[in-house]
Amino acid sequence: MSQQRSQTSTAYLFLAPFLITTAVFFFYAFGRALYYSFTDFNLFNTPQLIGVKPYADVLNDPSFRRALGNSLVFALVTTTLQTIGALLMAVALNNKIRGMGFFRSAWYMPSITSSVVITLIFLWLFQRRGIANYLITQWQIYQPLVLTFLGVLLALQLGQVLWERARRLPAGWLDPALAAVSALGALAVTALLAWTGVVGAREVPPFDYQYFADKWIEVGGVRVLSVPLLVIIIQNTFTTIPTLMLFFLAGLQNIPGALYEAADIDGATPWQKLTRVTVPMLRPVTFFVVTVGLIGTMQMFDQVAVIGSAAPPDTLVTLAYYVYSNTFKAGAAPVNMASAAAIILALIILAMVFVQRRFFPSEAT
Amino acid sequence: MTAALEQVPAHQTPQARDRWLARRRWARAGWLYAFMLVMSFFFLGPFVTGLLSSLKDNPNEYPPTLNIPQLTPQFIGRAWSLGVQGSGDGWQGGLTPGRQVSFEVSVKSPPGAPQTPPTVALFPYQPVSLVAIARQAQARDYAALKTEEVARSGDTRTYRVTVQSPVLTRQSGQTVRAVLSAPDANLRAQLPGGEVVPVTLDTPEAQAKQYELNEGQAVELVRGAAGYTLRGPLFERTPLQVDVQRGQSIVGSTLPPSDRQNFGRSFAYRNVTPGVLGYSFNNYRRAFNETRDSKSGRSLFFSWVMNSFLYAFLRVAAAVVFCSLAGYALARMTFPGKNLIFLGAVLFVQMVPSQVNLVSNYVLLKDLNLLNIWGLWLSGLVAAGGVFLMKQFFEGMPRELEESAAIDGASTLTTFFRVMLPQAGPALIALAITQFQGAWNDFFWPLVILRENSSFTLTVGLSNFRELYGGQGDYGLILAGAVLSAIPVIILFVVFQRYFVDTGADSAVKG
């Protein structure tokens, strides 16, 4: 019994630094934020309780509603894109070929560098006269050649597959060997056509799109997604895919090979194997990835803060940034509203996690 | 695709069937490699283009090209030799008193066009710094220029432009480098050893310049019989401009121009005495040199790097000690409240966004006078994620280790420090590097807590760069800063790849 007691005290001794900092900088802070959210605190006065008025103010603030809309759209779109992208890349990477280690580590690069660095690079890429617009211009210039190549590729592939089938060989529509031949053929035909001058590059003015401006994608007159936020979605997907891909890879390696062998015996196509074996078997990992993705994307802050004044405020404001900017507003800051918004953000995230765990239980989370 | 095996018609010979399958395997691998290469371009492309463009004179050039003179051996060699001519230092370059630099320009003048030599001039260069710093001496106000024709072939003539930096003293003796100190009745300079000495201006030329020289100006002095005399200021750059007449065109020069204007008749060379660092890594040098604190004169960028390292080091040290202690207690000890602590202090903490605690922690640290690196460190002393990682690790270790230690009569503390912790090497490395990466890349809390621009960490400083230079489109500086700040984590990644890949959970939650 005394040994048990001594173990308890040792355990609490071991845990002390962790518990003390967590208590001070998390639970005390959390409680105080909750308290501030019912007061008229503005960083300089003594807080007075004023009930739920800050919550009402926040909900009536058009900027908050925009932030809420932006955050939700960003979280949903980004989580979807990054989950699907990571899954597909993991499936591709799960092949055992030489040099896989190199590719894995090369692709991991966006995940280790800071979001500030990547945002700065993306700001530079997406300038009016930046690399992104340059690539779009190049695409427009060489569109005839690319389309010719694709058209010939398709025709050759079709012809070859039909020919092989006529010879009673079991060629699939996407047969890689035939596609390689088709690609070479299409390349030759396109080169020939370009050389004879039948098709060629076009003259187009430089594509001059301003990404960080007050531009919106509207659905039925409702502003759903702003173009600057779209750029951040691209950037964020780029950043997170490699990490999430690793989770899927770990999950893929746990799928018993016997399942695929059984599917092979039943004559399943690669697509059927993906949708009937891989995806269901990865369900626990997928839910983990989605949860982590939602928590992360709902808190998106760095990118908005770095871009700051370079884009109109409404296009980028997210809940996290709303909290930050209201806390450090010049003059008397509406800190009570910031706290209320932060509590609402926390509730949304907790609700999302709860829904995930309640309705999609899995052993991975 | 073993399914295909069954479907191959019986009349095919086994050899033909094997060939068919082999061909297919090869093709599949080929497509896979093609896909991987495309994805590599996608994932590495932004970094590589950013890195290459950060070396360019103008990273915004349109259309962008991959033909970068800063990476061409020939021009790097010339930058070295111009640096040697200008200051005797092929790396840093610059122009020092008494030195002479020759720079060649070829001008094509067709028969109908004017046959005059080009107009050459030095132009001033003032850094656009984070805070206004005192004007530095400009090569334009001191150096003399001379142009002479040295060669002619067809209608192209080559002119040699000679930049001669004067010596302001008649004394001779040992030359020393120094920095002018705060102005008073007399001119004074601080020697590298820290000694402050009075400076004599012994010639009319030198006296004419005395009111143009500011505090912080790097100069060369002569130590002679009459004490220290001013030999002349040191110039970091020698910006040169060359203009030709209508009808003429510039067809070549020792270094390619930084800017072309006026339909290719006006060329500007930002620095004709660059040295290798000043040529290929100009933007990187600028990031350090042109961001000075107005009070201390120290490089802000350098301070940010140091702050980031300090913060990362503190975070790693605290995590290694405290997270392993807490993780071990949660994994291996039985005590009341264990589950509650795990759920509340580890899992819940990770789910609540840090913005909730913003106001409260800010007010608390402000009241404690800790709005600095130490406050930042204290508020994130023990990372819940780190505790989770160590708990998982200790749970996977064999119990026999502790049991045998207990039989030998070791106390819990001894068992932990002598038996368990030494076994935890791999987990501790993983913890250390994820904490380093997390601290190095941390942005939200440093932005909230650090209020002085000399105490920023690199991420906050870089976002400040964006505010200050983004509007002017000075992406050379921004990209150079971004690349520099990415280097430590990339090195860490290359060395410890395995551990990054094992514990990706932390960075997945980044915004």
Automatic annotation (TrEMBL), chain A:
Keywords: Cell membrane, Membrane, Transmembrane, Transmembrane helix, Transport. SUPFAM superfamilies: MetI-like. GO terms for cellular component: plasma membrane. CDD domains: TM_PBP2 (cd06261). It is found in: Cell membrane. InterPro entries: ABC_transporter_permease, MetI-like, MetI-like_sf. It is a multi-pass membrane protein. One of its GO terms (biological process) is transmembrane transport. Residues 68-356 form the ABC transmembrane type-1 domain. This is Sugar ABC transporter permease. The lineage of its organism: Bacteria, Thermotogati, Deinococcota, Deinococci, Deinococcales. Belongs to the binding-protein-dependent transport system permease family. It comes from Deinococcus arcticus. The chain crosses the membrane at residues 12-31, 72-93, 105-126, 141-163, 175-196, 241-260, 280-297, 336-355. It comes from the Bacteria.
Automatic annotation (TrEMBL), chain B:
InterPro entries: MetI-like (IPR000515), MetI-like_sf (IPR035906). Gene3D superfamilies: MetI-like. It is a multi-pass membrane protein. GO terms for biological process: transmembrane transport. It is found in: Cell membrane. The keyword Flavoprotein does not apply. The chain crosses the membrane at residues 31-52, 301-328, 340-365, 371-390, 475-496. GO terms for cellular component: plasma membrane. Keywords: Cell membrane, Membrane, Transmembrane, Transmembrane helix, Transport. Its main location: membrane. CDD domains: TM_PBP2 (cd06261). It holds the Pfam family BPD_transp_1. Residues 305-496 form the ABC transmembrane type-1 domain. PANTHER family: ABC TRANSPORTER PERMEASE PROTEIN MG189-RELATED (PTHR43744:SF12), ABC TRANSPORTER PERMEASE PROTEIN MG189-RELATED-RELATED (PTHR43744). Belongs to the binding-protein-dependent transport system permease family. This is Carbohydrate ABC transporter permease. It comes from Deinococcus arcticus.
